[in-house]
């Protein structure tokens, strides 16, 4: 009787411990492995996408296709530029899609930050987007070398406050636009002799007095301001 009682007591003590030992192996081991693999895969995908974005370079061959896709879901159409004279806001035309997309893209990439208004022609234009700083050349190198086709048939003229894109200085019989630069007309009422040769893609809607003050600065050889005029910050107004 004592032996039988001891046997049941031994079974009672042994069964729970066996049960507790089995359950964690079934429930915990697979889930921990899956979580680690999922997190690792996610990090790898993010790193790959970041690397691809950093390595992407615009060229003559891919620029048009890239900006065609870029502008499809583009809602933003305003850019604010800040200088030591104050800020002004540019509204971009929706129906000049490649030039608009290019300007937004470069702004978001931080290209215009610390570039200069390098050409100031009294009572005519101020031209920005270039610099004698090596950092600007480095940014152009990283983004890519490409031109944009003119888009002069949308009915826009070079009124006062119009933002337009100059032609490239390269051998350029078709007047392809230099994507990194822009000019703003200060002539009142406008400079209509430019129509048909350059592409208006926006207009200044706030801060035209700042543009006028930049245009009033003294210049030296080649219409370069005697004191550098930097775009300290360019930002897309979402």
UniProtKB/TrEMBL annotation:
Pfam families: Pro_isomerase (PF00160). Signal peptide: none annotated. It comes from Maribacter cobaltidurans. PPIases accelerate the folding of proteins. It catalyzes the cis-trans isomerization of proline imidic peptide bonds in oligopeptides. Belongs to the cyclophilin-type PPIase family. One of its GO terms (molecular function) is peptidyl-prolyl cis-trans isomerase activity. Its EC number is 5.2.1.8. CDD domains: cyclophilin. Coiled coil: none annotated. This is Peptidyl-prolyl cis-trans isomerase. SUPFAM superfamilies: Cyclophilin-like.
